[in-house]
Write a structure and sequence with these properties.
By secondary structure, the chain is α/β, with parallel strands linked by helices. It has one domain: P-loop containing nucleotide triphosphate hydrolases (Rossmann fold). It has 7 helices and 9 strands. The strands form 2 sheets. It has a 5-stranded parallel β-sheet, with helices on both faces. A hairpin with a 2-residue loop joins strand 5 and strand 6. Bound molecules: adenosine-5'-diphosphate and guanosine-5'-monophosphate. The site of adenosine-5'-diphosphate has 14 residues, from helix 1, helix 5 and helix 7.
Amino acid sequence: MIYIFCAPSGSGKSTMVRHLLTKYPNLFELSISCTTRAPRGEEVHGREYYFLTIDEFRDRIKKDDFVEYEQVYEGLYYGTLKEEIERIEKAGKQVLFDVDVKGGINLKNILGDRATSIFICPPSVEELRRRLEGRGDTSPEMIEKRLAKAETEMADMKYFDRVVMNDDLHHAYEQLDAIIEQTK
Ligand code: ADP
Ligand code: 5GP
């Protein structure tokens, strides 16, 4: 089973993915996406993302190397390479995706029953703002862009196989663990 994690930015996707990677270190591996945004904080090329220039990204589009890609924010592209899924499956592991909501819906349509799509629901937009500000690695302008997108993203929750409410973190982990036990 492949798991696709989606949510408005700041809802806790990375936190949920980290929980699964820690709890099941031999079972899962996170698909590393390509992006044209600059590295944040301690991010390293080939670990959090493959950081590409816009020309390199366009070249990979032309070569049809992506399973899916999106202009997630104005001028910023993100995409999943076909070879990334092959790499993880060859290593005998199950793929985890952390992608934006549109990308997740596309991936689910492509992968069908091979994948379970999970929407991480934040308690409120105000709490999203607090979490993004608290994370301390995103500029105020980018925080506004991310919050502006959150409302339309929440409306797409209905397209997902499962929803995890990430209010209390411990409770969110329990919901996620139950989904994994039922589907893995
Ligand atoms: P995303 O990957 O969806 O952008 P993150 O996992 O980076 O979101 O979470 C955003 C911030 O909120 C992080 O600083 C994280 O530690 C914090 N966070 C995640 N879940 C909770 C929660 N249930 N309660 C409080 N803070 C949380
Ligand atoms: P961030 O800049 O915070 O790392 O990510 C911004 C958004 O882009 C997040 O919602 C993240 O899930 C999404 N994202 C990351 N990789 C991909 C990808 O390969 N495809 C799509 N469609 N979105 C992605």
